[in-house]
Amino acid sequence: MTSGGWAVAATAADLSQIVKAYDIRGVVPDQWDEELAELFGAAFVQVTGADAIAIGHDMRPSSPGLSAAFARGACARGADVTLIGLCSTDQLYFASGSLGLPGAMFTASHNPAQYNGIKLCRSGATPVGQDSGLGEIRALVESWRESGAPAPVATPGTVSERDTLVEYGAHLRSLVELGSLRPLKVVVDAGNGMGGHTVPTVLAGLPVELVPMYFELDGTFPNHEANPLDPKNLVDLQARVRAEGADIGIAFDGDADRCFVVDERGEPVSPSAITALVAARELEKHPGGTVIHNLITSWSVPEVVREHGGTPVRTRVGHSFIKEEMARTGAIFGGEHSAHYYFRDFWNADTGMLAALHVLAALGTQDRPLSALVARYDRYRGSGEINSTVADQTARTALVRAAFEGREDVTVDTLDGLTIATDAWWFNLRPSNTEPLLRLNVEARDETVLIAVRDEVLGLVRGG
């Protein structure tokens, strides 16, 4: 602080590089620092008109300082601040929903240690994105960096602390029927992220033998990246599940809002299969409900939803699209290939921990191993996401479209990138918004067809 207001932030970072579509994220201190965090706190309060907010943070070394600076900025604009301290992102959403407060979560999720960021939401965990306030926040911060921020209000806000972990765990358990679980041996890889903080409390009192892996909170990620979407980061969990003879393995990303599952053989379970399994369970609670899925989840997801009396709705890839459709349709549940799972009973927000509880409940209330349980939901062969570096995304996509669209029984869809489908297979080719990449996902009814389609498309994308 200065006597006349905030000092103009010293960093010369380009805000367009750190203010993303859904959050703020960048390298600390090269791209942003505590001075800039203070301005973001002030701008968040001014744009939302909040008189009180909640702030949480992950285990990264820079998180306590950045979150405290944000709190100073918020207080200077007159907002009372409730600090909930170390938490997972979905624990911050719980605080926002249960306390009726806008929230700020300091995390860079699965990014490397030098990164940090802020996920913002309005009261009730409603997301703040580029078109719902984040653009205005960026513009305000940019103007203040040029001219200096206005003087603090006459009556600044207060700061209090509140630990919501026990309430969060109890709320999650209240949303899943867990009373008749058989004993389960569960290996959890927290990746030195926030799962190490939340999992013991969430699973407290359940008939679970917990085998913890990398539960020590360490934002330098000494064991492996906290990004289970990359297969190399599941290797330790897979080996431990087999060595322990465990019933299931679960991995969380750095801020513990995404959940990945491996079966008793150590084999990864597709997030599409988890989406279908949880959708079926949610439809038991909410008969006839709507379920959202993005366009690169498996065919099995809408099939299972219809089989259980629900209505599937297909969206673009990205959590903002899922949340918009959930709000528009009143959907009960939404799932993505990236292992984000959204629940109407959790303020339409994503929570990997609640999805994990659903999987434990499904497994523990019957006698089959997990591999047999999920087989009914894992019906087709998928390629996973394959990235290709290209000089011209548009030209390569057009080349692929020209090669396929005239063929018999082919349908062409451009909801998000290019989707080509027949009764036997489909593929989606999407450009990255931030890198010179095309992302390919293929699914087919058998492995031979999958390989043929995958190789043909990659030949066109990567050809000279």
TrEMBL record:
Keywords: Isomerase, Magnesium, Metal-binding, Phosphoprotein
Superkingdom per UniProt: Bacteria
Listed cofactors: Mg(2+)
Keyword Magnesium: yes
Every Alpha-D-phosphohexomutase alpha/beta/alpha domain range: 17-143, 167-266, 273-380
The protein, known as: Phosphomannomutase/phosphoglucomutase
NCBIfam families: PRK09542.1
SUPFAM superfamilies assigned: Phosphoglucomutase, C-terminal domain, Phosphoglucomutase, first 3 domains
Family classification: Belongs to the phosphohexose mutase family.
One of the Pfam families matching this protein, by short name: PGM_PMM_I
Presence of the UniProt keyword ATP-binding in the record: no
Ranges where the Alpha-D-phosphohexomutase C-terminal domain occurs: 385-458
Matching InterPro entries: A-D-PHexomutase_a/b/a-I, A-D-PHexomutase_a/b/a-I/II/III, A-D-PHexomutase_a/b/a-II, A-D-PHexomutase_a/b/a-III, A-D-PHexomutase_C, A-D-PHexomutase_C_sf, Alpha-D-phosphohexomutase_SF
UniProt organism field: Streptomyces formicae
